[in-house]
Amino acid sequence: MKFRITFKDPDGVYESLENAADVRISQLGGLTDKEQEMLKDSTIETFEEDIKPWVDCSEYVTIEFDTDANTATVCKVNEWKL
């Protein structure tokens, strides 16, 4: 059986992107705190663009579960938003 669940979590999406940006920036090294903050904002914006196919309005994610195949798949926005 296949079914879909849509999750709404604006804080979770943003905080996850923020954490991913922190990890990426920490790998660079040698940056001042101000440079890190400036880079963090643009990195988060880049990540937001990268995830747009799967995350609607920076907060909605739909997952399709297939209990017969024992799988779960994140749906692209255009697959579930009509």
Explain this structure.
Helices cover 49% and strands 24% of the residues. The chain has 82 residues and is α+β, with helices and mostly antiparallel strands. It has one domain. Strands 1, 2, 3 and 4 form a four-stranded antiparallel beta sheet that branches. Helix 1 packs across helix 2.
Short description:
With 82 residues, the chain is of the alpha+beta class.
Q: Which structural class do you get from the secondary structure elements?
A: alpha+beta
Q: Unreliable runs, pLDDT <50, ≥5 residues?
A: none
- Which outline best applies? elongated
What share of the residues does DSSP label as strand, in percent? Answer: 15-25%
Number of domains: 1
Largest sheet: 4 strands, antiparallel
Helix and strand succession? EHHEEEH
- State the helical fraction: 40-55%
Number of helices: 3
What brief labels describe this structure?
82 residues, alpha+beta
How do the helices and strands line up, and which of them pair or pack?
Elements: E1 2-8, H1 10-26, H2 33-51, E2 55-56, E3 60-66, E4 71-74, H3 77-80
Antiparallel strand pairs: 1-3, 2-3, 3-4
Helix pairs in contact: 1-2
